[in-house]
Amino acid sequence: MAKNKTVFFCKECGFESAKWQGQCPGCRQWDTFVEEPVVKKSSISTGTKSSNEPELISNIKAEEEVRYSSGIEELDRVLGGGIVPGSLVLVGGDPGIGKSTLLLQMCREVVNRVNVKQASSENKNKVLYISGEESINQIKMRAERLGVYNGELLLLCETNLDFIEDVIHKHMPDIVIIDSIQTMFKEEVSSAPGSVSQVREVTGALMRLAKGEGVTIFIIGHVTKEGVVAGPRVLEHMVDTVLYFEGDNYASYRVLRAVKNRFGSTNEIGVFEMQGNGLAEVKNPSEFMLKGRPEGEPGSVVSASIEGTRPILVEVQALVCRTNFNMPRRTSAGTDYNRVNLLMAVLEKRLGIQISDCDAYVNVAGGMRITEPALDLAVITAILSSYKSVALSNKTTLFGEVGLTGEIRAVNMADQRVAEAAKMGFDVCILPQANKEHCKATGIKLIGVKNIQEVMGLLIR
Q: I need a surface site. Which of 39, 66, 271, 413 has the fewest CB within 10 A?
């Protein structure tokens, strides 16, 4: 019998090679090649010429994007204003985080709302939910827990993409949910479902279907232990939008984050809270994050952070205490560990504070992960507050980037940060002097600082 031909694919970039290589020549990553059977190529007529011709950009008339709401404001925010017909959206996240629940709730809102689709003679949108992991009865039980479905929501349990394409062409739904991409397969690809070849071919077929028929397709993807979508990295390059659903197993809130969006801004987030009847939108994340904040305790400060275009107030906590060991311990949760060590070195050098013999623990309360430099001033103030056992006022918030010479540098979107602090009832905001000169916010006292020496003077009077 003839031996089946195989090739090697890079899981990161999709580079193809006839033999295994330790380092991928395309993306320069190590140990990323996997062996897969050769995908059969369909016969292509060489005599047919393409009718496409290049056009001048000045002659092309730009059409306004038609969007319609998903019925969930936080999801619309992350998508850039709503669902774009004919788009291909990838939703990734840890098992049990709520990916299927979120999309099933979106299906309920879409099918229950009248006259959603513009220029359509139908009264309601038609949604097709395709699952390769659950039975129809399981989906029905979960749907009943989430609410009442009055519109046209079609359920299908199938993993063969050829059959799925026939169903889509027959019913022509407006939105299709694929749960999940790792369970789908094409018969002409001999490898197992979830392999590099299958995921790449299935996604390519769904992309052609979405663009050709104008059907919006949401794909659910599993993630690896590193936190990225399982399968080849080229999967994220093929789709229009990549959303990651994040959350702490010990916290009730969930964060939906956009890392790629061809129809809107990236790094936009939506905040949800997991409840018994599904996911509830968190309209005011700042209030949600500051629940249970201690009052008058040293080492606790509030900082104004920006996630995408949304300002969020978070509590930064620090605990500094003497150590009995030769090497002090440093721990950070919710922010960059190396950045905390750098800021502590700045404190020692510029303020002459001896904290090299102290254990230091820094935590962003609530489980949020903040990496922007505007958190620097809050981290330094929290460490000073804990070290000196002096509490900052409960009505004071602060933000700013700290340089290696101890200067406080300006950050972006200062007006939005100050306005959010004023809305939450804070009376004083400590911010970089460069931002204060241009800040137009009212209803709150602004204190501009140029270096950490001035911050030390404000903390200890």
A: 66
Three-state secondary-structure class, residue 262? coil
Confidence class for position 450, pLDDT limits 50, 70, 90: very high
Nearest-angstrom CA–CA distance, 142 and 275: 13
d(CA 311, CA 416): 6
Q: Which residues are bridge partners to 406 per DSSP?
A: none
- Tell me which of 56-65, 136-145, 201-210 is least confident: 56-65
Across the strands, what pairs with 401? Answer: 409
Alpha carbons within 13 angstroms on the beta-carbon side of residue 178 total: 33
Sign of CA dihedral 295, 298, 299, 303: positive
d(CA 97, CA 275): 12
Distance CA 289, CA 64 (A): 37
All residues at 6 or more sequence positions from 367 whose CB lies less than 8 Å from its CB, including other chains? 247, 248, 250, 251, 253, 334
Are 223 and 230 a contacting pair, CB within 8 Å? yes
**Common-topology check for domains 67-283 and 288-459:** no
* CA–CA distance, 62 with 101 (Å, rounded to integer): 36
Give all strands (DSSP E) within 266-407, no chain letters.
Answer: 269-275, 278-281, 300-307, 310-322, 330-333, 358-364, 396-398, 401-402
Do residues 279 and 272 make contact, with C-beta atoms less than 8 angstroms apart?
yes
Give the integer Cα–Cα distance in Å for 335 and 333: 6
Q: Of 43-52, 140-149, 232-241, 314-323, which gets the smallest average pLDDT?
A: 43-52
How many C-alpha atoms does 145 have within 13 Å on its Cβ side? 14
Q: Is 157 helix (H, G, I), strand (E, B) or coil?
A: strand
Q: Which CATH number fits domain 67-283: 3.40.220.10, 3.40.50.620, 3.40.50.300, 3.20.20.70?
A: 3.40.50.300
Distance CA 329, CA 276 (A): 40
Which CATH number is associated with domain 288-459? Answer: 3.30.230.10
241 vs 15, residue with greater confidence: 241
Reduced to 3 states (helix: H, G, I; strand: E, B; else coil), residue 386 is helix
User: In the numeric block, which tokens belong to residue 287?
Assistant: 């209030």
Q: Can you list the positions of beta strands (E) in 28-87?
A: 33-37
Looking at the whole model, is its pTM more than 0.90?
A: no
For the chain, domain boundaries: 6-37, 67-283, 288-459
* Residue 343, H or E segment: helix 337-351
Please, which residues bridge with residue 216 across strands?
175
pLDDT tens, position by position, 417-440: 999 999 999 999 999 999 998 888
